[in-house]
Amino acid sequence: MGTDISDIVVSHETSLKDQGNQTFSIDTYNILYQLLSNVRQYDGMPLMDSHGNVTSHLYGIFYRTINLLENKIRPVYVFDGKPSPLKNRTISERQLMKEKAKVELEEAIERGEEDLRQYYSRINYITPQIVNDTKKLLDYMGIPYVDAPSEGEAQASYMTRKNVDGVISQDYDCLLFGARKVLRNFAIYGRRKVPRKNIYKTVYPEYIILDEVLSANQINQDQLIGIGILVGTDFNEGIKGIGAKKALALIKKEGDIKAVLRRIGKDIENLDEIIDFFKNPPVVDYDFRFGKPDTDAIEHFLCDEHDFSRERIRDHLESLKKNNQASTQFRLDSFD
DNA sequence: CCTTTTAA
DNA sequence: TTAAAAGGG
Questions:
Q1: What is the CATH number of the domain that holds A245?
Q2: Which nucleotide is nearest to A37 (CA to C1')?
Q3: Beta-strand relationship, A206-209 and A181-184
Q4: Which of A57, A145, A285, A313 is the most buried (most CB within 10 A)?
Q5: Which residue range(s) make up the domain with A125?
Q6: What is the CATH number of the domain that holds A127?
Q7: Is any atom of nucleic acid chain B found less than 7 Å from the CB of residue A135?
Q8: What is the mean pLDDT of chain A?
Q9: How far in angstroms lies nucleotide C1's C1' from the CA of residue A188?
Q10: Whole-number pLDDT of residue A191
Q11: Where does this protein have coiled-coil stretches (predicted)?
């Protein structure tokens, strides 16, 4: 997923607290996939209410949002819109992976394997209902969100040029879309599963400043986009055998991606369109505002409709009320 | 993933 | 008091 340019990215360890008093746009689909694949029971099934609706995402969004607010971070959730046709290959590839995972799951069940989490976790669908539930919860919590015309990452990145301080996302693509600052690993509990294995390692929240990445590597934004494309993005496959470091060296030597491709005698389909998509993606201007949380509505939605524990939710509603106050205040301060 | 409970 | 395990919906 995304583009792997981690080897040339300069990142700084941080904490939620250190990033307080800022507003961040959130690549919501990125978070939703994370939640759907990780918030699971021991047998691998997601959390579900008594009607069989998946609730893992509601659980995650509720608690994570409150964590952010408690650390004085103001989140603005950004949802994906219509994917670009450039992404078709990636989308069908992911579909294929899920079909494969389904078959492997069936086989594991037949073998009588107990821990099915690694199989289930690869079969996640963000359904319209999941999106609508998430938006409903955010509305009740008084947290703003925006529907991107196309890529959520692009919209969230664009917002860092306007009225937010950074993007919360795991994907480096945000840097190609020009995000001034990217925040990764913004989970409170830095436990991350090593892919395919049942091992957890600790990861720490980190931030990346685009200008620093550019100056440290002595490149410009166009060259960074070129490096991303050489390595591979959601919109193209990338050149086999070229990782971030090799791409960086080539781009610096040849000047730009077209010269690099001429030199190595390779071609990238739709190159001009892809470059243009990173530089001028479809985005909208959006004035967000924080509202007062409707605690009754949250309680009804989570507890009555989706079987959350009333006691636990009530405990956290107090914190939400208190900490969203600060966000509401921020709006008054900055616009009046 | 995040919180709560339990074991150390 | 802290870390690991279990539970959550």
A1: 1.10.150.20
A2: B1
A3: antiparallel
A4: A57
A5: 1-217
A6: 3.40.50.1010
A7: no
A8: 92
A9: 20
A10: 61
A11: 91-122
Residue list, annotated binding site of A: 27, 80, 151, 153, 171, 173, 234
Predicted confidence at residue A114, as pLDDT, reads 79
Statement: the CB of A34 is under 7 Å from strand B: yes
Whether residue A89 is found in the same domain as residue A173 = yes
Distances, alpha carbon A251 to alpha carbons A6, A212, A218, A235, in Å: 16, 18, 11, 19
* Shortest CA to C1' contact from A303: nucleotide: C9
- Chain C positions with an atom below 7 A of a protein C-beta are 7-9
List, chain by chain, residues whose CB lies under 7 Å from nucleic acid strand C. Answer: A 39-42, 45-49, 55, 58-59, 306-309, 312-313
Tell me, yes or no, if the pTM score tops 0.90: yes
Number of domains in chain A: 2
Cβ atoms of residues A75 and A326 within 8 Å: no
The pLDDT of residue A328? 72
- List, for residues A201-219, the tens digit of each pLDDT value: 678 899 999 999 999 999 9
Residues annotated within the binding site of A for Mg(2+) are 27, 80, 151, 153, 171, 173, 234
The distance (Å) linking the CA of A95 with the C1' of C7 is 32
Domain boundary among A217, A245, A271: A217
What was the pLDDT predicted at A324? 84
Q: Are residues A103 and A34 in the same domain?
A: yes
- pLDDT (tens digit per residue) in A101-123: 999 999 998 888 877 888 888 99
Answer with the one of A279, A312, A329 that is the final residue of a domain: A279
Q: Classify residue A291: in a domain, yes or no.
A: no
For residues A121 and A241, membership in a common domain is answered with no
pLDDT confidence band for A192 (50 / 70 / 90) = low
Residues A43-58 pLDDT 10s: 889 999 999 999 999 9
Protein-covered nucleotides of chain B (CB closer than 7 Å) are: 1-4
